[in-house]
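Researcher: Quick test of sequence recovery. Tokens follow.
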């Protein structure tokens, strides 16, 4: 039994083609430039590895099926035509004669009935040069799974764009505080040694402890007292918004005793504090990179 294969093509937008993670806990979409496609790719959101032919979007698969049906029809009619043509040649003369009217079928051109999903950030990985686009906060390069400073900077740019475009500034700030901490968490998971990857990196002090234990490095070294206080507030306000309806509670005060007088009140968020926290966190990330033995 022989197998017949067909080649189908997908449209691109400015050279970018969509990909969709098929991990059960992810399923998010991103784009990779056609010149950057590899045999193996990584989801920029969850970091899971996939073969190139496992990341098609549902829209692409439907489009490929439509193309495939048309190509299969053309092939099938062609094979039937050849079969009857051979029979007609054999029975051209004699008591039983057979003639054949050629069957012609040309595969119809299938126009894509979809557009790739919107993305809001484009990045060229400084480690492997893969060019890709993502929507929202992400953690990895899809080409090499690198977690470098460029990933953090791209995430920060995304958050700033979302804040600038937001109609509800309070809601946008709540998301921005949370996503800033998530971007830091993604970075730490990638830079931590295997036995420390399950550390609670959404907790600034747990992140500090984890890197002290695995590298003997204090990631907060070099920060001023004001910068450290800002980071403590950003991390704890993020926790308060997710787990305590935005109210300052005892857990918050244990980590930020300077705000003990505010217990029971709503944690106040501001663009200025977010920006100060983002700058301080970039210094922490630089410190993590500088002390990474893999970079030596």
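Model:
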């Amino acid at each position: 039994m022989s197998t017949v294969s067909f080649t189908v093509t997908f449209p691109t937008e400015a050279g970018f083609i969509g990909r969709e993670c098929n991990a059960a806990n992810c399923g998010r979409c991103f784009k990779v430039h056609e010149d950057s496609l590899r045999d193996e790719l990584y989801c920029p959101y969850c970091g899971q590895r996939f073969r190139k032919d496992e990341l098609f979007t549902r829209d692409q698969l439907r489009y490929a099926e439509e193309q495939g049906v048309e190509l299969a029809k053309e092939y099938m009619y062609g094979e039937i035509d050849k079969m009857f043509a051979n029979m007609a040649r054999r029975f051209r003369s004699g008591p039983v004669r057979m003639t054949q009217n050629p069957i012609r079928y040309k595969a119809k051109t299938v126009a894509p009935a979809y557009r790739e999903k919107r993305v809001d950030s484009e990045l060229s990985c400084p480690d492997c040069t893969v060019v890709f686009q993502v929507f929202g906060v992400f953690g990895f390069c899809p080409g090499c799974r690198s977690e470098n400073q460029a990933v953090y900077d791209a995430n920060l740019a995304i958050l700033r764009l979302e804040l600038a475009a937001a109609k509800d500034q309070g809601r946008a700030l709540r998301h921005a505080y949370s996503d800033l901490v998530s971007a830091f968490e993604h970075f730490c998971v990638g830079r931590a040694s295997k036995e420390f990857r399950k550390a609670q990196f959404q907790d600034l002090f747990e992140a500090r402890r984890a890197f002290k234990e695995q590298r003997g490095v204090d990631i907060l070294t070099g920060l001023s007292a004001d910068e450290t206080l800002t980071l403590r507030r950003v991390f704890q306000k993020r926790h308060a918004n997710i787990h305590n309806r935005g109210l300052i509670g005892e857990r918050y005060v244990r980590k930020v005793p300077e705000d003990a007088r505010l217990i029971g009140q709503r944690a106040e968020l501001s663009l200025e504090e977010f920006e100060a926290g983002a700058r301080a966190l970039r210094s922490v990330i630089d410190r993590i990179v500088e002390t990474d033995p893999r970079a030596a």
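The radius of gyration is 28 Å.
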